[in-house]
């Protein structure tokens, strides 16, 4: 899921790991990793965005390659 990848990318830009971000925000360990499979709640995403100095929309964008679907 794009959200986790975008969080990981933003953390990399800030020079921290996702685990360090979780610790800083008092999130349960590996809770952000679970965003690979499940959508986060708005409050947690807002906290991440604020901590990483990014708009919430940044995390919702799919920055990956567009893949062609063949029928």
Task: List strands and helices in order, with pairings.
Elements: H1 2-14, H2 18-24, H3 42-51, H4 56-60
| CATH class annotation | Mainly Alpha
Mean pLDDT across the residues is 91
Low-confidence stretches: none
The biggest beta sheet is recorded as:
none
Shape: globular
Query: Going by CATH, what is the homologous superfamily?
Result: lambda repressor-like DNA-binding domains
- The total count of strands amounts to 0
Task: Tell me which CATH architecture applies here.
Answer: Orthogonal Bundle
Query: Helical content, roughly?
Result: 40-55%
Which secondary-structure class do the elements indicate? mainly alpha
Rounded Rg: 13 Å
Total helix count? 4
What is the terminal separation in angstroms? 23 Å
Q: Give the number of domains.
A: 1
Note the beta-strand portion.
Answer: under 5%
Question: What is the string of SSEs from the N terminus onward?
Answer: HHHH
Q: What is the structure about, briefly put?
A:
By secondary structure, this protein is mainly α.
Please describe the structure with a list of short key phrases separated by commas or semicolons:
single chain; 71 residues; mainly alpha; 434 Repressor (Amino-terminal Domain); 4 helices; globular
